[in-house]
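User: We ran a pulldown and think these components assemble together. Before we commit to crystallization trials, I'd like a predicted model of the whole complex to look at. Sequences follow.
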Amino acid sequence: MRAEASALQGSMPARAGIGLRAQHHLHVLAAAAPAAWFEAHTENYCADGGSHVECLMKVRERHPLSLHGVGLSLGSTDPLDAGHLATVRRVVARFEPGLVSEHLSWISVDGRFANDLLPLPHTEEALRHVSRRIAQTQDALGRQILIENVSSYLEYRESSMREWEFLAGVAAESGCGILLDLNNIHVSAHNHGFSCEDYLRGIPRHLVQEFHLAGHSRIQSAGRDILIDTHGAPVCDAVWRLYRDALRRFGPRPTLIEWDTDIPAFHVLQTEAQKADALSTPEHDVAA
Amino acid sequence: MTSLRELQTRMLEALLNGPSGDAAELIDAAAPIALSRLQVYRNNVLANFADALRLTYPAIWRLVGEDYFRQTARNFQRRQPSQSGDLVHAGRCFADHLDELHAESKYRYFADVARLEWLIQDALLAAEHAPLDLEKMAGVAASAYDTLRFELHPSLRLFESRYPALRIWEVNVGSDEEPESVNLDAGGERLAIMRHRLQLRFHRLSAGEHRLLDEIRRGATFMEAVDAAARSDAEFDAAAALQRFVSIEAIVDCR
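Assistant: Here's a predicted model for the assembly, 543 residues in total across the polymer chains.
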């Protein structure tokens, strides 16, 4: 099983891919070479049929694909949602993605869903709990999944370790890989006053299998300046610098340009993808 | 020591229902800052829910306007928060909520429009199915007609309303222009809503046709369904109905 999964993962190029959004479906199907690979939100393609599902089938015939979920609520203390997990399993079987990922967060408790990626306290209890649930998910899907660090706007009193220690600990205990969202690191570092360099140094090199790049916005909250992870703007200079640092530490990995709100024309995403590729491709490769 | 369970329960209660004081104590910041950070999450939780509801109910959104829609979404979320990691299900009971809200008002028709929009979403997300195999149909022995059962297209949804909901939906969805006015006294509609390949289609039904499809949907044999349809509609023509439903691919299999 493990060998099969890694063969699929090998099909994901260590280049920039683009987040597939419904607004761009027709454009992507008509274009000759729209992107090196695509990432789709798992929950947007859970239906039995219809235009979204048909479009993704066609995209999958032509391009490597990653499926990125938001709905499993892996950090929740409710029982794992067997129905939703079965749906994800069906979607994964249908589209055969090279990578499957979810978030290091919780979105529900007592059967009520916030449907927003809420942070976990960085405690031993939460680490063990979420690791167990990730392991269960991997068993159900028959493959390794990647877990993404989320942006956060608050920290809990209960936390006893830094976020990167928590993330690395979860990966070590559950056997999952890490999807490192560099924008989320930048946003949380600003909001909580930690160092992005410390974060990168705290993540073992071999665990990182994908990067996310995105934009954020800035608001005033209780007289303080905080960053909000909107995924609705170009990647900022500081995040591009962090991407360079991450490339130095972890090497080139599949890197997603992610845009979820105020979605621009597709060529804007392609330009961002080219920028990412220029940074991850050594100069002699570009010249050749 | 706060358990993970307790932390999550207090957080979610604050995010869905407020007030946030109980959850603010969990947060590693002075109270005003903790409250403002919780408010960021509360705004997200409502916005995600309202945005999902808007995707399901574009005509209702257009009819009531953004501010009232978000306010209604917020009240609905408090009463019936999402029960799934997939927000496509969040609006399941929205029509009932509107029905209760406007039971005695001139906006009673909102609930009919919302019911229609829910069924449209359902039809758009349903599985595909090949048309009826006519050779298989021709091979059914005459002696088997009495117990013949038909299978309907997976996307087919039956709709019956008191108000002209489809007309209201049509003038509010698909055009940015000021919608033309609809006569609410024009009466209700009986429809089969279907996705044909990737196209949404609406078929107006007579009372008998509606009853026939409803009986088939419930698992009745064709003969039972015809009897029920004829009882409810004196003008019902079984042969014509069968021909129509095969040709629009409402009927896709028989057994």
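Residues 1-125 of chain B form one domain. That may be worth checking against your pulldown data before setting up trials.

User: Thanks, that helps.
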